[in-house]
Task: inverse folding
């Protein structure tokens, strides 16, 4: 049964739009799936390989801008961004990896944070190339119906899930975990840590880039402040994984559901809307203190807590 | 170079050094925390923002001069830092988790809460303290009539710079002459050995976090006469503090001073010769250049000199 769980869940998700949701519910659903892609990608680098990135907005934004720029300057369909972003994001990740992967732990985290900010400022200032703060807008979106976007993002997410599971179950995955647990020990066992960390970064970057390309096509508008956002992309990517479960297959999906629903819920409350970062911050603090491995990662702990409550009452 | 060009260059350098002095104060706070606790405090800029609001409201409500409010804001920030360490960070140090960077992510959460609360309470307006000396300046031509170049020195910038230097000297005395200071330095060298030598590690952590917060709080008060204030300014200064610590060498106080001045001068040069909007990029270009060419920062250069290599 467990073996078929991903296929069953995919089939169920594919059937969901047939129920006939409103356009808004479909939008929320699309966001959930998109965020689970970003979360899974972050999890590959952060959760499995132990390289916590604070700058995943950089990959997201590079993907989005690849597709936006070929649309704006060359007049191609923005969907060509999907294959093209693989090349662009890989090259970009190699550069980032060369610079940042010599740092460890928190220093790597902050260096990636800086990368995200550098890209935002660069995109704002290179206004000939990226339109600066005006942003890039698609004159018309491919479809009006959201259902097609939903299927595309679902295929992307299923692909991401499949790739990540394949990678983690292969030798590569064991190398990643070894690097996370003890980089020096891994190196002494003959693992080329720089190479494998770079591979993890490139894979994670490309997958995040896909989400960026999709975002460009779906939303039809990007500007540097939106796609290179520190709090609204990079930090939320971390939160999706932290809340859902670090180094688990399903954690990012669970986290994405919780985070997107929470964000939408907070936004719908007129009084709470302005306080959404406070609530996110408090949630982050509470999760880190009480469930450091996230909901899916700390299931035994949650069960124990629930049972304690059950027997106590 | 013609005289006006020299004038622009000199003026840019002066502005850079004055800015650098203030940056150094922010950087020292971060490097202290980093050295002792081995974590990066990503709420550093937000703590500075809190201090700036304290100074701002003291000025608006009670007409306390921003420079005097250092004496109120810095202790307040010390207490805030101690509380954060005691109730939030130290519980996380004990929790077992997959990712060791949990504490860093925790400080991000703290920063988000602080910035957002400031937005809620004070609105996201840009504010500044209209002190009467903010626009006054000394001019070189007033003192030296036949000077070939004319340079000016803003009152507020100069006073802020001098106070920053004074605080840095005080800190140096504290770290080298007092028992507490020596314990802090011992912990940043080897916290386990310090524990064995009878240093109260838990208490020192609290004091260090408080001290780091107080320093950045003081820097906030010094910034307020010359800068404007808005709730989201923290993130930018957190990054500045981090760039300074990398530039100076992780955990090195002397390095942070050099790092602050280098960064100040460099930013000032980019702003003058390339363009205002690019100043943040210049900041990160220097950051990446340091990571590639001088991974140990200025501190590694100093150490090499001392070893005679």
Result:
């Amino acid at each position: 049964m467990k073996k078929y769980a991903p296929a069953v869940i995919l089939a169920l998700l594919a059937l969901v739009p047939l129920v006939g949701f409103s356009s808004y519910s479909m939008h929320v659903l699309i966001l959930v799936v998109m965020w689970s892609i970003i979360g899974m990608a972050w999890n590959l680098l952060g959760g499995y390989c132990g390289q916590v990135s604070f700058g995943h907005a950089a990959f997201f934004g590079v993907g989005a801008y690849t597709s936006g720029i070929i649309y704006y300057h060359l007049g191609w369909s923005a969907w060509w961004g999907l294959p093209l972003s693989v090349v662009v994001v890989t090259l970009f990740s190699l550069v980032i990896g060369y610079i940042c992967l010599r740092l460890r732990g928190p220093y790597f985290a902050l260096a990636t944070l800086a990368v995200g900010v550098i890209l935002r400022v660069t995109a704002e200032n290179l206004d000939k190339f990226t339109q600066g703060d005006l942003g890039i807008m698609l004159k018309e979106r491919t479809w009006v119906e959201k259902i097609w976007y939903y299927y595309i993002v679902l295929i992307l997410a299923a692909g991401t899930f499949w790739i990540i599971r394949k990678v983690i179950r292969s030798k590569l995955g064991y190398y990643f975990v070894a690097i996370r647990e003890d980089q020096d020990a891994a190196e002494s066992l003959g693992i080329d840590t720089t190479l494998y960390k770079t591979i993890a970064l490139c894979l994670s970057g490309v997958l995040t880039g896909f989400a960026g390309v999709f975002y460009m096509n779906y939303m039809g508008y990007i500007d540097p402040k939106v796609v290179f956002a520190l709090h609204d992309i990079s930090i939320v990517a971390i939160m999706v994984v932290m809340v859902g479960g670090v180094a688990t297959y399903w954690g990012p999906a669970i986290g994405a559901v919780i985070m997107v629903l929470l964000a939408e819920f907070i936004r719908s409350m007129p009084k709470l809307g302005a306080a959404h970062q406070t609530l996110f911050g408090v949630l982050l603090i509470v999760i880190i203190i009480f469930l450091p491995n996230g909901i899916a990662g700390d299931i035994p702990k949650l069960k124990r807590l629930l049972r304690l409550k059950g027997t106590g009452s | 170079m013609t005289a006006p060009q020299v004038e622009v260059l000199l003026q840019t350098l002066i502005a850079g050094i004055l800015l650098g002095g203030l940056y150094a104060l922010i950087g020292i706070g971060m490097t202290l925390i980093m050295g002792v606790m081995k974590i990066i405090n990503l709420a550093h800029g937000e703590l500075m923002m809190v201090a700036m609001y304290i100074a701002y409201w003291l000025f608006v409500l009670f007409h306390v001069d921003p420079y005097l409010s250092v004496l109120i804001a810095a202790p307040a920030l010390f207490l805030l830092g101690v509380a954060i360490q005691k109730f939030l960070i130290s519980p996380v140090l004990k929790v077992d988790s997959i990712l060791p960077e949990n504490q860093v992510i925790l400080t991000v959460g703290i920063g988000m809460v602080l910035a957002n609360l400031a937005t809620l309470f004070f609105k996201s307006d840009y504010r500044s303290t209209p002190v009467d000396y903010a626009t006054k300046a000394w001019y070189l031509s007033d003192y030296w009539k036949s000077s070939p170049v004319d340079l000016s020195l803003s009152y507020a910038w100069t006073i802020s710079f001098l106070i920053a230097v004074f605080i840095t000297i005080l800190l140096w005395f504290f770290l080298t002459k007092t028992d507490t200071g020596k314990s802090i330095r011992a912990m940043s060298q080897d916290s386990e050995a310090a524990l064995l030598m009878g240093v109260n590690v838990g208490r020192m952590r609290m004091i260090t976090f408080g001290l780091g917060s107080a320093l950045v709080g003081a820097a906030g008060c010094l910034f307020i006469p010359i800068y404007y204030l808005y709730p989201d300014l923290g993130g930018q200064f957190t990054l500045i503090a981090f760039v300074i610590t990398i530039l100076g060498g992780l955990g090195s106080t002397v390095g942070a001073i050099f790092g602050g001045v280098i960064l100040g001068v460099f930013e000032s040069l980019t702003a003058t010769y390339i363009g205002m909007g690019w100043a943040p990029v210049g900041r990160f270009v220097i950051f990446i250049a340091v990571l590639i060419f001088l991974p140990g920062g200025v501190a590694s250069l100093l150490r090499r000199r001392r070893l005679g290599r």
